[in-house]
Specification:
alpha+beta, 5 strands
Length: 157
C-alpha cells in the first residue's frame, strides 16, 4: 500500500504550501458542483482574469484543463459577461462544427457560480514558450501557424 502511495506521489509535481492550499480550496468549491468528481492536481497557467488547473477524472482517467475566473472577474458584471461569451464561443466551435473548429479546444462543461470552464487538456508547450525555446523559424512554419490562428479566429467570430 505504501508503495502505491509513493508511486502516485512521484507522478505529481511538488507544490508550494500556498499552491496546495489553493488547490484544496478549489477542490472544496467543486465538491457541490457537476465537477465534484475531478481531482485538481496543479496550476498550469494564470492570467489577469483566470487561473487554469490541471485536473483528472479518477474514474475515466481523462485529463482536463479547468479554468477558474478569479478576482474582479468574478464580481464585476461587465467582466463576467466575458465569461459568458467565452463559454458560448467554445460551445459554438465544437470539433467539425465549422471550418477552423479543429484549432479550438473542446469544452466539456461550464458552471456560472463560481465561474469554471472544463476543457480538454492539451499536453505540450504554449506557442510563446515554443518560440522562446527555438528562437527562429522559417516563413513556411510562420504561415502555417498564422493560418491556423486565422482559422480559429474565424470560427469564433
Amino acid at each position: 500500500m505504501a508503495d502505491r502511495a509513493a508511486a502516485g506521489a512521484a507522478d505529481t509535481p511538488a507544490v508550494s504550501c500556498e499552491e496546495a492550499y489553493e488547490l484544496q480550496q478549489v477542490q472544496q468549491e467543486l465538491s457541490t458542483t457537476e465537477f465534484a468528481r475531478l481531482r485538481v492536481l496543479r496550476i498550469i497557467g494564470s492570467g489577469g482574469f483566470a487561473r487554469v488547473y490541471y485536473s483528472e477524472d479518477p474514474f475515466t482517467g481523462k485529463r482536463y484543463a479547468l479554468k477558474r475566473w478569479v478576482g474582479e472577474a468574478v464580481t464585476n458584471p461587465q467582466i463576467r459577461q466575458t465569461f459568458d461569451r467565452e463559454v458560448q464561443m467554445l460551445r459554438t466551435c465544437k470539433p467539425d462544427a465549422k471550418p477552423g473548429s479543429e484549432y479550438i479546444v473542446t469544452i466539456h462543461g461550464a458552471i456560472p457560480n463560481p465561474p469554471y470552464i472544463l476543457m480538454d487538456y492539451i499536453d505540450g508547450m504554449s506557442l510563446h514558450t515554443l518560440m522562446k525555446k527555438k528562437g527562429s523559424y522559417t516563413w513556411a512554419w510562420a504561415r502555417q501557424v498564422a493560418f491556423r490562428l486565422a482559422c480559429a479566429l474565424e470560427c469564433v467570430h
